[in-house]
Structures are given as C-alpha cells and as structure tokens.
Amino acid sequence: MGMIDVSKVSFKYIEEWVLKEVSFSVGKGEFLGVIGPNGSGKTTLLKSLNKTIVPQQGDISVDGVNIKNIKRRELARVLSMVPQESPSVFPFSVMEMVLMGRAPYLSRLSFEGEEDYEIARRAMKMTDTIGFAARGMGELSGGEKQRILIARAIAQEPDVMLLDEPTSFLDITHQIEIYDLIKGLSSANGLTVVIVSHDINLAAQYCNRILLLDKGGVRRIGTPEQVITRENIEGVYGCRVLVDRNSVTDSPRVTPLSKNTETFG
Amino acid sequence: MVVTLRKVIIICVSLTVTCIAVGIISISLGTAEIGLAKVLRGVFGEVTGSIHGWTDTDRMIILQIRLPRVILAGIVGASLSVAGAVFQALFRNPLADPYILGISSGSAVGAILAIISGIGFGFLSVPSAAFCGALLTIVLVLGIGRTGYGLHTNTLLLAGVIVGAFFSAVILFLVSMTRDERVHSILFWLMGDFSLSQYSEIIVVFPFVIVGFTLIYFHAHPLNLIVTGEETALQLGVEVEKVKKLLLVCASLMTGAVVSVSGIIGFVGLIVPHMMRMMFGSDHRLLLPASGLFGISFLILADTMARTVLAPVELPVGVITAIFGAPFFVYLLRRKGI
Fold it and tell me: CB distance from B92 to chain A under 8 Å?
C-alpha cells in the first residue's frame, strides 16, 4: 500500500472519458512526474486526486483511506495543491495568502494564532519569500507568485503535495529553483510529490518515477529511463524526437525534431 | 496588514461610534430647526426624566418622523453594503452590486403593481408586494442558473442580467400605461425614498438583516478563499457549492427585504465595499462588518442631504447616492485601477 493508491479510475465531464481505468500507486516520499500531451488527462488526474472532481468509476486512497470518506477539510491537511496560477481580483497581501494555507486547521469565526504565523513564516523562509511578506500579491513577478503558492501549500503541513505545471510561466532559472525547492522538501521531510509537467527533461532529472499518460490511460509508469524512450515518446506525442542522455546528470533527454530534419552521419 | 481579532474590534468600535454620531447629527437637522444641543439635552432628559426635555412637537418630530427614518436608512445602508461585498466576492467581480441578480427590477415590478392597482399605502402593502417581486426574481435566477455541476457563477450572472432586463421592460410598460400622479410615486420608489419610513417597516426588515448577516459572517473566512478561486477554495477544504448557495440566498434575501422598504438605491452596495477594501484590505472577517457599519453612516448621510439640500423639497435618496457615488467611483478607478 502506497501513500496514494489509484485504482481503475475513470472520469468524464460530459460524454467522452477523459480518464480511462487509470491505476497506479505512489510510495511515501516518492517524487512522481506526470507527463503526456495536451488533453491526455494530466490536470484531470490531479483534480481527481484532490477531490476537486469526483470520478464516476474507481477508487482513490490517500494513506490507505478512500478519499470519498475523507472530509474536504481533513483532506486539505494531508494533501496540498499548487495551481498553475492564482488570479485574485481583490488584493491580498503575501502574508495573508500564505496564511490561507492554515484554513484547514482554522475553526469557524476564529483568527490565525501565533502558531499559524510561525508555520507561515517558516514556509516563507523555505521558499525565500519572507522578504516580501507585507507586499501585495499584485506587485509580484510570476516566479515570486509561484513561490508564494508553494509556501501556502507548505503551510498546510501536508504529507502529499500536488503541483500542476508550476513552472510553465517561468524562465529556466526560476524553473530550476522551484524544482530544487520541491526536491529538497521531498528528501528532507519525506513529502510525497506528484508533479504534472510539460517539461520532460526537467521531470527526467528530478523524478524517481514518471507516469506517461496517453489519451486518458496510463501508457507507461516507471523510472525515467524506462519511460522516456524514443518509442514511448514518439508513440504518445506523435512527433519525431531524439532521445539521448544528459551528459551531466545522465538522465534521459528528449529533443523534438522537425519533420524536415535530415539525419546526419 | 494581517487581520486580527483586536484589529476587527478596534475598527468596528470606531465605526459604530461614527454611525451613532452621524445618526444624532442627522436627527438634529431638517426643516424644523431643533439643533444638536437640544437633541442631546432631550435625549438626556428622556433618559433621566429631568425637566430639560423636549416639547411635544419636538418629541413628535424626533421620535415619529426623523428617528425611524434614520434607523431605516442605516439598516438599508448596512444591508446593501454587506450584500454588495458578498456578491463582489462570490462573482469575483468588482462591478458586482446587490442588484446584479435583477432583484431590484423584480421588486420594482411588485411595488409598481401595488401602487397602480391602488392597494395604496396602507400598512406595508407596497413593501410586501415588492418583497414578493424580489422573491420571485431570486427563485427564477437561481433556477435558471442551476446546472448539473451546481451554481455556475457566469451562468448565474447572465441569468440575473436577462431576468433583470425582462422586468425592466415590464416596469417601462407599467410606467407608460400610468397617466396620473401615481407616476410620481412610482418614480420616487424607483429612485429610493425614505420619506414614509415607519417603525413597522423596521420591525419587519430587521430580522432578515440580522439573521442574514450572522449567517454570512460565519462564512467570512471561506469567502476569502473563494475570492482566490473556487478550485483553490475546494482544495483548502471549503465546501464551495454549499457555501455559495447559502451566501447567495442570504445576500439576495437581505437585498430583497431592504429594497422592498426603501426602493432602489444605487451605488451604496457598489462603492462602500470598495472604500472599505481600500482602507482595510480584502479579508472578509474585517471587510464585512466594516462595510455594514460604514454603510449605515453613508446612507444616513446621503438621506440627510436628500431632505435638507433643497428643503422643503425632498429629493429621492438614490439621486444623492448616484450624484456623489458615480464621480467617486471614477476616482477609485483612476486611482487604483480596482
């Protein structure tokens, strides 16, 4: 039994099945990357895991308990989510935003206590955001905002963190920073991580295992070396690719090729 | 920066003191000069039974005409401001106001029907017809806005616009069919008017406002989370659909109840929440009570102007809130780009 057990999960919004009998497990402290083309069901899968949507078929358990039987508030103490972005119409300060991570612990009509502030400050130190606690969310850059959202997820004190393409709006420096941060949390605190990524190469560098989704089904799950092969990637994404090894990290590396590329040598 | 219980109490106490001061000043102003000193001395006299009290005329004007009017204006101001803040948060739309679901047009149809059918101004007949109109609108809009996946805010907004537009057409039809002095009553109702305020209206409306505000305030913190996105709120443990439904019904009923006794007073519910947000931030645990308390002062002040600037002629209070509200809103837009 893993930290997360997904068993034969199928989901449809209206007619077409977006997830088809998806089954896999994630072990405690594992760093799992979910990759796949647009529309392969990556985000839908994350939403099923945190009960934003409820699959019509199949079961999902977190730490051995079916999430159908866990109240949202309780689930939010175990499982936190970092969205792609968090647009807010009305201005909240950075500190207020991070404190929202304490919501699952806050009783009705109460205010955050000293302990909540301490946890929020610690989360902000970890994400290197404590310096702009007093600023408004609207004044921050994309990378800073993303780090705030991660700080909020840390403040939830979860066992599992789900991330939905947290680096898609960021430049490479910030991408690496975010991945390093998450990896650090995973190895230092035993946090289980499921990260959806468009960037196969980054996923290959950081993840213990990779789940490759294809049209709502699991094409392959395994180590980066097992999953990221020319055959799998071309089969799922439908374009020509070169798969070789990153000469520094030795992780698999994918380079997409134009249809018109001539083969040299 | 961050809201604490202490901060909420301090700000609410100061705003309450402001409301009371504004109320007393408002009572002392008007066609019949009574004066602040006399009002204060009179209140003292009434309480202690000393001889420095009011004459019978003073007592009549103050207790039977001005006091109920000030109290009712305060209740309406508070309700519209709180409902406005709730609608802005639920729809994540800074332009939302208490009338966004068409409640104003619906209750106007009820009120106008009561006025022209000659049920007249007997005990609460126009207000109760208006309230029926508001209820009908709420049921219609929530019914149309309901989809398989719960209440979708965009669908709800469109439903509100459509139902509102339909009732507006009915209003225009009814007004164009009316040829006598009843048009004047209708126009005053449409622009908001407190000149006929009675204690009975206060007694009927007050429970709606208190119960509505209490239920809303219980969900002040979840409302913060909903502002950052419904999915985020779900993921932070909020039962979004349940909270949304409850808050929509509460804010709509509060609006319907006060519109039925005051007519349509624009801009209060739009501007007051923005002013409070600029001053105190977006945390609803502070924003909601601050909006309510400031809304009291705001509408009492507007109504005092309505009855004094061109005395003895009385203006509908909606004219005052619009004349001052619209330019102020432009100022807000230019200054902060809400």
Answer: yes
Angle separating helix axes B103-116 and B153-177, nearest 10 degrees: 20
Q: How many CA atoms lie within 13 A of A91 on its CB side?
A: 19
pTM, two decimal places: 0.91
Cα–Cα distance measured from residue B155 to residue A236, given in angstroms and rounded to the nearest whole number: 37
Residues of A in contact with B280 (CB under 8 A): none
Report which of A41, A58, A75, A87 is spatially closest to residue A218, judged by C-alpha positions: A41
Q: What is the pLDDT of residues B51-103, one digit of tens each?
A: 556 677 777 888 888 899 999 999 999 999 999 999 999 999 888 899 989 99
Note the pLDDT tens digit of each residue in A88-143: 778 899 999 999 999 999 988 889 999 999 999 999 998 889 998 889 888 888 88
CB within 8 A of A120, min separation 6: which ones? A95, A98, A99, A101, A102, A112, A151, A155
The answer to whether residue B1 neighbours chain A at the CB level (below 8 Å) is yes
pLDDT of residue A82: 94
Q: What is chain A's pLDDT, residue by residue, as a tens digit (265 residues)?
A: 789 999 999 999 888 999 999 999 999 999 999 999 998 999 999 999 999 999 999 999 999 999 999 999 999 999 999 998 777 778 899 999 999 999 999 988 889 999 999 999 999 998 889 998 889 888 888 888 999 999 999 999 999 999 999 888 788 988 898 899 999 989 988 999 999 998 999 999 999 999 999 999 999 999 999 999 999 999 999 989 999 998 898 899 999 988 877 766 5
Chain A nearest-CA distance from B154, in A, is 15
Distance between CA atoms of residues B319 and B325, nearest Å:
10
On whether any CB of chain B is under 8 Å from the CB of A264, the answer is no
Give yes or no for A97 touching B (CB within 8 A). Answer: yes
- Interface check for B241 against chain A (CB to CB < 8 A): the answer is no
A76:B277 CB<8 A: no
State the smallest CA–CA distance between residue A154 and chain B in angstroms: 12
Q: What is the 3-state secondary structure (H, E, C) of A143-193?
A: HHHHHHHHHHHHHCCCCEEEEECCCCCCCHHHHHHHHHHHHHHHHHHCCEE
Q: Residue B4: list chain A partners with CB under 8 A.
A: 111
Which residues, 6+ apart, have CB-to-CB distance to B77 below 8 Å?
A: B268, B272, B295, B296, B297, B298, B299, B300, B302
- Beta carbons of A72 and B234 less than 8 Å apart: yes
Give the Cα separation of B91 and B79 in Å (integer).
18
Q: Does residue B224 sit at the A interface (CB-CB below 8 Å)? A: yes
- Asked whether B227 and B89 are in contact (CB, 8 A), the reply is yes
Given a contact cutoff of 8 angstroms between Cβ atoms, the answer to whether A104 and B266 are in contact is no
Q: How close A57 gets to chain B, by Cα (Å)?
A: 17
Contact B228 A88 (CB under 8 A): yes
State whether B221 and A99 contact (CB < 8 Å). Answer: no
* ipTM computed for the complex: 0.90
Nearest to A86 among B2, B88, B229 (CB): B229
B229 touches A at CB < 8 Å: yes
Q: Which residues contact B141 (CB under 8 A, 6 or more apart)?
A: B101, B102, B156, B159, B160, B163
- Taken as a whole, chain B contains a residue count of 338
Is residue B279 within 8 A of residue B338, CB to CB? The reply is no
